[in-house]
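Agenda item 2: adenosine-5'-diphosphate complex prediction
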Amino acid sequence: RRDRTLQVQVIRFAGSRRMVVSRDISQLERLENMRRDFVANVSHEMRTPLTVVGGFLETLTDGLDDFSREDVLHFLKLASEQSTRMQRLIEDLLALSALETGAPAALEEEVDVQELMRAVTRETEILSGGRHSVNLVLEGGGALLGSRKELHSAFSNLASNAVRYTPAGGHIELGWRIDGEGGEYWVKDDGIGVDPEHIPRLTERFYRVDRGRSRETGGTGLGLAIVKHILTRHQGELAVSSEPGKGSRFAMRFPAARLRRDSARPPRRST
Ligand code: ADP
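Presented output:
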């Protein structure tokens, strides 16, 4: 049972008549706490790289002549990595805020799934840089109705996580299938896996099983939060199964209403 916070207000009328109004503000309080945590997290995430960049600049300004050209280049490279990290964080934050405030994605674009899967597979191979075997399984085709940009981003997110949480030499499978209920996109890896107790929280903003590992591999902790919002906007659902040390399977399921099967493609409307 949750504790409740009640806000009580007494309204007095002329004479001795009074009215007591009480309002349950537990939900408001919870939202306010979440907002506060979020701001604290963002500030912390930004401060770390800024401290590193600031420190390098100060060291170089204080004694440029004490360092060899190689040292200076090394500093600059590290500073540039931190600035890329901040940029990625800001891009993810902006994407998240646009998704949170936007209306549900209109059924506006017909996104050819096989085409999208091929593009995501190519990107995954590039990201992996030959360290993993990446294969594509297509058990059906058709199109998804929605935002091409958002769907691409959600598909890529799961694939890039597989690369980042699978050690070199591992296998990554990207797949798409259609059944009676709708369509499913899945990404399977034989990487580090996730303990089932963490699974329900993975889509929370900044929730990471291993902060160090996520940072090292370029994670912002916002990827799955973005995926979840995109899925909600497309009436889709995320399904995760995983075993630590064995690997994971992240899947997105889309309802039939979001699918346009090849054979059922209606003629183009003319205006
Ligand atoms: P991050 O930028 O940290 O990867 P995400 O929101 O994309 O943030 O993922 C949240 C957390 O979920 C990750 O930090 C990681 O602990 C876990 N995770 C996501 N995908 C995988 C995967 N394929 N294998 C193992 N752990 C994963």
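Discussion summary: Residues 161-162, 165, 189, 191-194, 202, 207-210, 214, 219-225, 248 surround adenosine-5'-diphosphate (CB under 6 Å).
Owner for follow-up: CH.
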